[in-house]
Amino acid sequence: MTDMSGLTVFLMGGWTDEAEVSRNTAKACFQAAQDAGWTCELIEVEHDIASRLADLKPRRAFNALHGQLGEDGNMQGMLNLMGIPYTHSGVLASAVAMDKPMTKTVLGQSGIRFADDIPIRISGGIITPDQDTAPQTPYSQTPFSMVIKPRNTGSSVGVHIWHDGDDLPQQNLWPEDTQLMAERFIPGRELTVSVLHGEPLTVTEIIQSNRFYDYEAKYADGGSTHMFPADIDSDVFATAMEWAAIAHDQLGCRGISRSDFRFNDATGELIMLELNTQPGMTNTSLVPEQAEYKGISMGALVSSLLEAAQCD
Questions:
Q1: Distance between CA atoms of 78 and 81, rounded to whole angstroms?
Q2: pTM score of the predicted model
Q3: Could you tell me which of 45, 69, 87, 176 has the fewest CB atoms within 10 Å of its CB?
Q4: What's the burial of 305, exposed, middle or buried (CB within 10 Å: 0-12/13-18/19+)?
Q5: Which of 15, 6, 9, 16 is CA-nearest to residue 64?
Q6: Residue 88 and residue 55: Cα distance in Å, rounded?
Q7: For 220, which DSSP code?
Q8: How many angstroms separate the CA atoms of 76 and 242, rounded?
Q9: Does the residue 307 lie in any domain?
Q10: CA distances, 195 to each of 94, 159, 246, 260, 267 (Å)
Q11: Per-residue pLDDT tens for 125-157?
Q12: Are 290 and 180 in the same domain?
C-alpha cells in the first residue's frame, strides 16, 4: 500500500528563464497529487530554500524545477545533503543530461546517433570555434544551416536556427557568459519518447508551424499538435523507443525522462537531439499525454514518481 504520510513539497520557480514553466508543471502535478490523497505544499524556490526546507521538514520533495538550478544537479545535491528524498534523476544523471555535449560523449558508444557539434563564440559578426582543437573555418563561412544554442539550458530557451544567407544572430540574444554550441541543422519531423521507470511509453510526432519546436510551440495553447503513436515506419518507431530507453538507462536516470529526435524522411536519418531529466508536465506537455495513452492517469503518474523518490 502506498505510504502517503508526511508532507510532500513541490519545488517550483527559481530564478532562471524557465521559472514560469516550472510553476505550471508544479501546479498541475500538485493538483493531481492532492486529488490522489497526498498532503502537499507548493514551495517557490528562492535563495533561502535550504532554511525553508529545514523548517518544514518534508517527508519528500517533488522536483518540478526546469533548467539550471533544478535540472543540472544543484538542487539534487542540496536535497541529498539534507536527506530529503526527491523525484526524478540524481546529481550525476542530471548534470550530464543538462550538458548537451557531455551527453553525447557519455552515450558515444551506445549506438545512438547525434548531430555533430562544436563549441563556438560570436565575435565581430563572425561565428568561430571556441577551442583550439575545433575546426578553424568560421561557421559563418560555411554553406549549410546550423542550430546555435546554449549547451546547458532546456525548453528551447536561447535556440536560434541559422540558414545560409541569414543575418548572423546578435550576441545580445544570450547572456554574456553563455557557453554556446553549433550543430548541423537536421531537417525533418520532430519526434519524442517519454521513458517512465525505464520503460518507453510511445513515440509522439510534434507538428507545428514555427521554424522549430520552440518555447512558444511547447507551452502556448495551440502552439503545436501532438500525433501519437507517430505515423512513421515501424523500424524508426522501434529505434526511437530503444534509443530513449538506452539513454535513460546509461545516464542513470530515475523516474521520468523524455528524449527528443529529428527524423528525415528523405534520407531515413534518425538523430537524437537531447534527453530531458525534468520534462514539462503542464496541461500542454507531452509526458502526461503519453502516459494517458498507456492508461496511466495524471494522478497515477505523479504518485508513481513520488513513490520512487529517493536520495542518491
A1: 5
A2: 0.86
A3: 176
A4: buried
A5: 9
A6: 23
A7: S
A8: 27
A9: no
A10: 15, 24, 10, 11, 27
A11: 555 666 654 544 444 445 467 888 887 765 455
A12: no
